[in-house]
User: Fold these one by one.
Assistant:
Number 1:
Amino acid sequence: MPIDLHTHSRASDGTDEPAEVIAAACAAGLDVVALTDHDTTAGWAQAGAEARRRGVALIPGAEISCQVGGIGVHMLAYLHDPDEPELLAEMERTREDRVARARRIVDRLARDYPLTYPDVLRQVDDRATVGRPHIADALIANGVVADREEAFATLLNSRSPYYLPHYAPDAGQVARLVRAAGGVPVIAHCRARHRGRVITDDDIRDLADDGMLGIEVDHRDHADAERSQLRALAKDLDLLVTGSSDYHGTGKLNRIGENTTAPDQLERLIALGTPQRVVW
Ligand code: AMP
Ligand code: ZN
Ligand code: FE
Ligand code: FE
């Protein structure tokens, strides 16, 4: 029973429509897939309708941008109330600042490369969360780089002089808000060192105290040693262990279903959240 709990659609920076993510999950032989777009639940309706049509189970989710003492982290949220006002307000604040930040990154890049903000907007669907991958797509369209990989290897990574961060709420606060909204907070790829500084075991303990319920252990950005260490920590703290692809369509090398979650962990996750929100 293959289960993939982390994917992106065109509601954020994936390249598939939400329905196409479901179709890809189906083609890969998955039984359960979560849609976890950055800071939005805008893809839930379309993904849900397609999941019902195809007989794939959908766990509606989101990947919420957060920080722990200035270190950027991503909190996956599953089965939460998408209309809970406080959580929604934090996601809206992030989404708005992502637009301002993308404009500022483009201002910097425009000094050295042919690029305008409207070029970026052409790459973003209506209501979608703006991110660096859309800037990458505009750079590709303008012939500056060949693909998103090259853009992130050169101009867009966090060590680039063109890079700027965006607003992100405190991760402990987000864990509490997700719980209050009936959802299950799971920390995403927290040992992905190539993205920048990573949080400590003590930070993870603090997040668990705030209500975080799981650790995404099996992810392509984690080496084997990191996975074993995180698995032991999850056991110690009685946290869920998940695995997932972080699929972005053709925007990243990640293949849907390349990492998966064990059925007993999914069962626990659903019971800890709001089971009625699963689309069967
Ligand atoms: P942002 O949310 O705007 O800071 O952009 C980060 C997003 O860019 C993450 O969701 C990643 O999935 C994506 N990303 C990071 N590195 C790469 C890469 N090498 N190729 C494609 N996408 C990437
Ligand atoms: Zn992404
Ligand atoms: Fe992420
Ligand atoms: Fe992701």
Number 2:
Amino acid sequence: MSKPLDGIRILDFTHVQSGPTCTQLLAWMGADVIKVERPGVGDATRKQLVDVEGADSLYFTMLNHNKRSLTLNSKTPEGKEVLTKLVKECDVLVENFAPGALDRMGFGWEAIQDLNPRMIMASVKGFGPGPYEECKVYENVAQCAGGSASTTGFRDGVPVVTGAQIGDSGTGLHLAFGILAALLQREKTGRGQRVLAAMQDGVLNLCRVKLRDQQRLKAGPLKEYSQFGEGIPFGEATPRAGNDSGGGQPGRILKCKGWETDPDAYTYFITQAAVWEKICDVIGKPEWKEDPDYATPPARLPHLNEIFGAIEDWTMTKTKYEVMEICNPLDIPVGPILSMKELAEEPSLRETGTIVECDHPERGPYLSVGCPVKLSDNDVTVTRSPLLGEHTDEVLSEVLGYSAEDIARFKQAGAV
Ligand code: CAO
């Protein structure tokens, strides 16, 4: 079966997490992704958080599936020769070097356009143009600078970063979207273009509802925040909202049976207005259905602590799965807090290919997250990440057409 990105060749100059997330998605859509890495060194994550001595780390293997690895020292004359040819042969160059690194290498945007006007040059940077554009940026820096940390955590605690890698993987997703749009536009214009995804912008995009709340503050307190029910005044900026739900329907994380020993024995429970009467029946508070202090959403706002306390008295008598079994048929929205262990073992995620097992020559079998987006005409087979330089000869000869003598010359010069 053909793949959506069949025939698209990616010069993958990415490293660590943000860029590799993007190129992995493109590989899953069928692009030929050639990961360019420094000879003998490679992507730094190959040797970070090592759990099997001598083997590529899970950090690397889980972000670089379905790619080919070409080693190349782009700072040597022979390396530049090869890179020049690669730029001519590829459709997209994806990179997430520190600002200015590509220019210093001699392959800035102008040079790329001269070599291949159809090339799309896609970059992740920490910040867009402005006072911080020269900064090197990592995940948590982006979470802090993009508004996530200031709005995550509890009102009376410090700002908190989230485990979801919204700065790195989130920006990689944004970049992939930009690349696909640029490829489509190229169909019409015949020209490539620059695509920039700044991590701060990506995080802020994912925190859009918090900027919504920032503006709503002008109209008065944010009544759906528990802080309102607790009678605590709001300050000038969107506060941290703990586990309050982000929409207009109050929600909290509540203890379930076993919470004393199991750190994940919790459920998210939303008191959605449409099912309020069913909630009252389930938790044994039928009198709240008619009581004017509880019957309508505005009336409930000052009583949310009491209401969630009563719901928790009920959820604590059930496991998180029992809560789900009881509430789902009644359309009461609940979400069990699933641990990584539970997700790794969940059969339905294995069946859909969202969790996959790969085999690796150095480390043996390992689990990974497969393609999270399913297309009916693109059945993704996740293949293991490449060893450092595994495809160097193959790419040099098959893609770039170099002879055995040329390849020997590049090796002799330490360029590949
Ligand atoms: N051949 C020769 N040189 C190479 C090379 C190759 N194949 N690949 C990389 N290099 C060189 C770069 O040209 C650069 O050299 P100069 O400093 O002389 O220009 C050098 O390696 C280091 O690159 P870097 O600055 O990108 O790497 P770093 O480890 O110092 O910084 C990071 C890492 C992530 C902070 C930085 O790349 C960055 O800010 N990237 C943009 C934002 C981003 O993606 N951050 C998230 C990373 S995922 O957590």
